[in-house]
Every structure is written in structure tokens, then in C-alpha cells.
Amino acid sequence: MQSFILDVHPKAPVRHINGDTLDNRKSNLEVYDQNTKNSYEALDEDSVAVILRDRYGKEKSRTIIDKEDVNRVVNNGYTWVLFKKDMEPYAVANTPEGKIYLNRFIMGTTEDMVTHPINLNTLDNRKANLENKNANVEDVKLNEETEN
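Below the sequence we write its predicted C-alpha cells.
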């Protein structure tokens, strides 16, 4: 119904401005631009929470980054969203070339490496919590664990 009221494609992400999904007045509806820059909130003097929204602009989660990385993460042309891989939440940017994981973006991880969250929180993307490891070393550890 909202797409009819706004005269847009039925799959266009229409958002209710006041949050009331029963209020379908034209003045309360807008087409959400999925390429909008992420907003963020300072957590302390060193950390920032980047807000991850769904296709309708509703907050789904937050990811923590270092304050020094805010400009590079928020003003890079990517929109970061929540993505679940094997039940684990990640912050990713969807591009025509594929997904870009925020942890790999921040750490500059090469293809032959993996980025591991030290505290196992995949949404804690502060550099102190991330480490790059050789992908082959991870495979060896997994094989050793399954053999024992």
C-alpha cells in the first residue's frame, strides 16, 4: 500500500517516519536511501559505535570501532549493514564486487589472511581486538582440534 501511495516500485524500501507502521499518510512515508552514510555515537574518548540499519532505515545493531577510524569508515562511500554468517553477526558493505567485511577493511587484511576478533565479539572492530592470522595456520589448528 505504501508503494502505491508514494507511486514507487513495490520493492522500494518505504519507511514510516514516525515509526508507526499503521500511519500510512503520505506525509509519514518516505523512500529510504539505502546508500545513506552510517550515523555513529561516541562511546568514550577512544571508541565509537557505528549504527547498522536495515533496508528500511531501522537500527538493527551497532559495531564498535576506534575513534581514529571514524572518518575512514563513515566517509568511504560504503554503507555498513548487519550480516549474519554462520549465525555470527558482522558489519559488511555490499558492493557490486561482493561483500566487504568491516574488520578486514579496518585491518587491511590480504586475501591469504583471516581477521580474528580476540574477544570473540565479531561486532567489536577496534584494532586492539582484531588480529590478522595466516589462513593456513587457522586450518591447521582446526584439523588438530578435530583429530584429538
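Residues 142-148 have pLDDT under 50 and may be disordered.
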